[in-house]
């Protein structure tokens, strides 16, 4: 009789203790899964992958423009905004560094230890991605035979600038580490270019997978691409 009653009780479902044990196990597994997957880091890694892809796309597009144009202009229609050969302290005036962020950057001054006299340039949000020379990179890709090799000029996945530059030593002073955007500059002699970006994920900024350390550039703080990776300063300025 006792055995039959016990069977009936078991047929009625789980006991409270059993349910608590199952819930505890599920909670522990959920926490472990979140720690392993780390969705925030996964998003940072995804954005970094986009940044690396964007800069690769622009390097290819700019290279095609240089080889397909008899008189290429990497800085407006006269290349005056381009630096002279990197290392000189008296570049062409007015030298420009172009930013993908639509935030106005008012600082004009020297850029880091190289003492480049440089002015920051950004354009309005509506024009950022235009390929006709009025986008944030002032190159007229539309002038190529067959049209632009890219449908738009990419911008950083976050593309925000917090702070407004400093009064000395370039653009890092006053700009928050939470800022993420691309920048571009060119050199007039010879006609070359550089683009760089800030990476945010540990997957691409630590150990053997640190893209900043293996890009061939002169700045371990930023990911750099281009035909001359010494145009932009080697310090922490951005």
Structure description:
By secondary structure, this protein is of the alpha+beta class. It has one domain. The protein has helices at residues 2-11, 16-37, 39-68, and strands spanning 96-99, 108-111, 116-121, 183-187, 192-197, 223-226. The radius of gyration is 26 Å and the shape is elongated.
Labels describing this entry:
238 residues; alpha+beta; six-stranded mixed beta sheet; 3 helices; 12% strand; elongated; membrane; N_methyl_site
Report the order of strands and helices: HHHEEEEEE
* Overall pLDDT confidence: 78
Q: What structural class do the secondary elements suggest?
A: alpha+beta
- Global morphology: elongated
Largest sheet: 6 strands, mixed
Q: Give the proportion of residues in helices.
A: 25-40%
Poorly predicted runs: 87-92, 108-115, 164-174
Count of individual helical segments: 3
Transmembrane segments: 12-37
Pfam family, one: N_methyl
Protein name: Type II secretion system protein GspG C-terminal domain-containing protein
InterPro entries: N_methyl_site, Pilin-like
